[in-house]
UniProtKB/TrEMBL annotation:
Lineage of source species: Bacteria, Pseudomonadati, Pseudomonadota, Alphaproteobacteria, Rhodobacterales
Signal peptide from the UniProt entry: 1-20
Stored InterPro entries: DUF2092
Protein name (Swiss-Prot/TrEMBL): DUF2092 domain-containing protein
Keyword annotations from UniProtKB, A to Z: Signal
A Pfam family the protein falls into: DUF2092
Amino acid sequence: MRSLTIGAWLVAAMACPATAQELVEPAAREVLERMGTHLTGLQAYELTADTGMEIVLDTDQKLLVGGTAVYHVRQPNRLKVELRTDVAQREFFFDGTSATYVSPGDGFYAQVADAPATIGEMLEHAAQRHGLAFPVADLLAWNSGAEWMGRITEGFRVGQTRIGDVVADHWAYRIDNQDLELWIPVEGSPLPLRISTVDRQDLTHPRFTATLSWNEAADPADAIFSFTPAEGMTAIPLASTDLALEAPR
């Protein structure tokens, strides 16, 4: 009897549905809707993401850059981000009026021009105008989910696993030019414990993964969202073509 390799067995076990109507399983939509409803209902929380990102060099060598991102959130317009990776340390402050991007180790900070009114708008503005990308930012900017649902072309349950002490379902999606995987607890809070994405627009198909820890009872004070430069820090301009303070992805 010819044996299947592990890769071939997985392909056979998760063969695509036969028709376009079946490419998105109803349960895959429902779990995403539950997650979105719960997430948008949170007024304040803290999120820690232990991240790993594939960086592809000009020689086609892939590097796995690890890091941690800590988010302090108060809806609709308070956000602090602390980023630490193998190669960089950054901070971001948004107090509803002004936004500041900081490189504390280098002693530089930059103001984001024309800060919008909400967290979601602020993150989009920072990405589109200044090229600043934050890990798992789509979760912070999640709205009703209607826009996401219209972009999903495939969605199915892969199986079940355990993340720490929690049993989670593993879900896979295709959204535009991105492959998305979510690991969501079977019981309790429907917020994801792990997320993985693959950028299919990039010919090298780099993968990003993050293990998530949520504190839904957090109540961050207003002072945490405002930035005051330490003595000796220097303000510099921040533009979309300025790579001096490019955020780690």
